[in-house]
Write a structure and sequence with these properties.
Structural class: alpha/beta
Number of helices: 7
Distance between the termini: 40 Å
Number of strands: 7
Strand order of the largest sheet: 3-2-1-4-5-6-7
Length: 246
């Protein structure tokens, strides 16, 4: 039997990069996956491809900044599959810039998507996890929060806030009902740089991704590893970075 047979997993930000790679890998390992993102046509195409390969996949158009969208994602997952075992909070943006640039719109976007989006997921999934008697929250964080580099202050702050919420939820969930896993990738070859408004930072980030970035499947394997653990084992945090990244 496949290691994730019977697991029901919803994934935000599943229209590309880490989210898409995670959805495909989990489906190949037996999970039923609900792909969520703003780009409905894109996730529908990915889900069709996954079903053609024998996987179980559904979709839900979601803007993580809207609490009602996360509630709809959880509800649709439960309606279709009877439960939700894992919510993967993967949606994120990185319009990074030096603080002196005063890009307050970019700051708000990172707070709304990276932090508030994750909290909206917690608010939607936690009551269902409690009602079911089990559930697993997985969030894609970042090594940017471990060592703060120039231009990364607000982005790192949002990621560290997510890490803090995870630890708080863990300490409130020692009854064994809810598990939490925060996964911090380093450079990964994704389209995250597209959300960076500063052209010089965007170009440098793309160069770094091309030079040293690992494939998104590497992070997907870390997600699968955490989910595959028995119910009495919690993988609290995983760092996944290129071997050549400082």
């Amino acid at each position: 039997m496949l290691p994730l047979h019977g697991k029901i997993v919803a994934i935000t930000g599943a229209s590309g990069g880490i989210g898409e790679a995670t959805a495909r890998l989990l489906a190949r390992r037996g999970a039923a996956v609900v792909l969520a993102a703003r780009r409905g046509e894109r996730i529908d195409a990915i889900a069709r491809d996954m079903r053609e390969e024998g996987g179980r996949a559904a979709t839900c158009v979601v803007d993580v900044t809207k609490a009602e969208d996360l509630r709809r994602l959880v509800s649709r997952t439960v309606d279709r599959y009877g439960r939700i075992d894992v919510l993967v909070n993967n949606a994120g943006v990185a319009p990074i810039s030096p603080l002196a640039a005063l890009d307050t719109e970019g700051w708000s976007a990172m707070i709304d998507v990276n932090l508030r989006g994750m909290l909206n997921g917690v608010a939607a999934a936690l009551p269902v996890f409690r009602e079911q008697g089990s559930g697993h929250l997985v969030s894609i964080v970042s090594v940017a929060g471990l060592t703060v580099s120039p231009s990364m202050a607000v982005y790192a702050a949002t990621k560290n806030a997510v890490r803090t919420v995870h630890e708080g939820l863990r300490t409130e969930s020692t009854d064994g009902v809810v598990r939490t896993t925060a996964i911090s990738p380093g450079y990964v070859r994704t389209d995250l740089a597209d959300s960076m408004a500063d052209p010089h930072i965007r170009e440098q980030t793309r160069k770094n991704m091309d030079a040293m970035g690992i494939p998104p499947e590497a992070v997907a394997r870390a997600v699968a590893f955490a989910i595959e653990q028995p119910d009495d084992v919690e993988i609290g945090e995983i760092t996944v970075r290129p071997t050549v990244q400082a």
